[in-house]
What we know:
Layout: E1 7-12, H1 16-27, E2 34-40, H2 61-64, H3 71-74, E3 78-81, E4 85-89, E5 94-97, E6 102-104, E7 107-110, E8 114-116, E9 129-131, H4 135-145, E10 150-154, H5 158-169, E11 173-178, H6 190-202, E12 206-209, E13 213-218, E14 224-228, E15 233-236, E16 238-241, E17 245-247, H7 250-254, E18 265-267, E19 278-280, E20 285-287, H8 295-310, E21 324-328, E22 331-337, E23 347-353, E24 358-364, E25 371-377, H9 383-391, E26 425-427, E27 432-433, H10 434-442, H11 448-455, H12 465-478, H13 495-504, H14 510-517, H15 526-538, H16 545-548, H17 553-557, E28 560-561, E29 567-569, H18 580-592, E30 596-599, E31 605-610, H19 615-624, E32 637-642, H20 656-667, E33 676-681, E34 695-700, E35 703-708
Amino acid sequence: MVNKNYQRLVIVGNGMVGHRFVEEMVQSEGGGNFQITTFCEESEVAYDRVGLSSYFAGKTRSDLSLVPQGYYDENGVEIFIGDRVESIDRGAKTVRSAQGRELSYDKLVLATGSYPFVPPIEGREQEHIHVYRTFDDLEAIKASAGESKSGVVLGGGLLGLECANALKNLGLDAHVVEFAPTLMGVQLDEDGGETLRSKVEALGVKVHTGKNTQRIAGGDSSRYRLEFADGSSLEADMIVFSVGIRPRDEIARACGLEIGERGGVVIDEECRTSDENIFAIGECALWEGRIFGLVAPGYSMAGVAADAITGAGQRLFEGADMSTKLKLLGVDVASIGDSHGRTKDSRSFSFRDELKGIYKKIVISPDGSKLIGAILVGEAEEYGTLLQMVLNEMPLPEDLGSLILPSSDGAPAGLGVDALPDGAAICSCHNVTKGAIVACVEEGATTIGELKSMTKASTGCGGCATMCKQLLDCELAKRGVDVNTDLCEHFAFTRQELYGLVRVEKIRSFAALLEKHGRGAGCEICKPAVASILAACWNDYILEDDHVSLQDTNDRFLANMQKNGTYSIVPRVPGGEITPDMLVAIGTVAKKWNLYTKITGGQRIDLFGARQEQLPDIWEELIAAGFESGHAYGKALRTVKSCVGSTWCRYGLHDSVGLAVEIENRYKGLRSPHKLKMAVSGCTRECAEAQGKDVGVIATEAGWNLYVCGN
Length: 711
């Protein structure tokens, strides 16, 4: 039964982006104000379409599912599986589905994605001719493969090559036919495409480029014959089209929403369409004339739309970096930034090793000051560093060839931090160069903590932390120091690697992770780290039986143990705003239990001296008065401090208390590797000391300024 006090939110489409939007709404502070209904056209709920080819390698539908068992029911999300929305009545604010359902909506989100484009080639509509998009498509391809000896994929892009690999793995004589002169023409230039072609052909897939298919006729020795414009032909028993996608905008078009000249639902920076109550996200959406065909921009849009609908955040969609790193048929392929050098007067440098099948190219800005693009085929170890150089506009070394050329002593190619010049800015927040960090290692620094103390590197935004660690390990290795990156003796992995294992393998407990990837019983290093990882990935209740042993005393009792063995209790007071009745309640509790009270530095009242057995009764009274735990003991958001702002202060420009309350309520309970403190100041006089907090917000005449990592 739908709660009539809720707004009705209808989502059309339950692909990767549609499901991500559901997750954003469920996690949002304002999401509880909506009754969410989503239509899933396919017979399966959202699954990993990016990893679809692994289905041919033995993965099951459930393996690729993105939706945990019972997720929608547990979160009150209504879903109609196997039903497609066919029309929208914007005047009545209703949608009608193929199965006859008619639902009203307050807000509507289009996540209809895209469909495989099939060019108007004569003979395209026959039994063993397919597209490569869904589970049903894959089942049809497998069935045809069982009755075929050879297969052709029309399209030499990313999905086309993935499909060709699938046909090869199904035991077929596999071919790729591409209209353009090279493979992956969007990401690669001619030399890169040719290098990829040689690698692909060496793996047993035949490549035919520059072929314009005119007709599909009956074959002589095979089921079909593809006839090309140049007079040549190719025979095969089955055909798969993978020549691109088109946005699914038909229902948006039919209800009168603004559509781009070449398709796509036009959206603004909030992902709002020409109808203020309808949003579009993912591959059906057109932003500033562009369709984004990668999943990451779609996920970004999902978050933006959730913020706009709930009012719980202020994210905006401002485009996306389309750099990609892939492994196709076992071949590394990467494209970064302006890989084709389309920037006027840009210059490029390339290296090609035909014997090893390696091609590398960098594109430099016209003034030669920065890297603006790159292509890597055959080896892509440099991808991370080159991407950072492009995104952060890092200075270039004098010898530009060192970015892509193998070292002269025959060492493996790969840029890494070692190849960066001493003047390269590793930490832009504190202007710490590579040379300064190397000098610290010379002076005896062996840990990241020591580097931070000596240079302040990685104490600002933290974005350089990985590069600092890479540089430290590199310099220590040069000096013969054995670098051990294991988290501890119980796990032979870094924290980042453990996070990946937990996320990918859907591991939900410390015991399961230890059994599968560790040894021993765990320690005070790995237990808190894994607790943080599990909280970040799954957000389960931390005092469940599987998690309680990972928490310390403070987490278990929602209070801070003091040096005399008693506990202090800190109720949450968002923004320091408190009613007289709530003040009385705190006073009553403190008197009843004889607790010492103190105003904390974060605008809260601390109650000291409680014995462990008293805590349940104390919390019962505080909760009855409207309080909750302020996480003063947790690695989580502690407080959002504020001044009185424009409500009382003659200097206040905006309502700092209101925003502080909103931020604290939005992020309370957020778990992190360390405690978090935030603040909101109503003007630049900075009475809330926002610039010294982990996250700070300061009011200006033009709006709000955000400061990150001041602490």
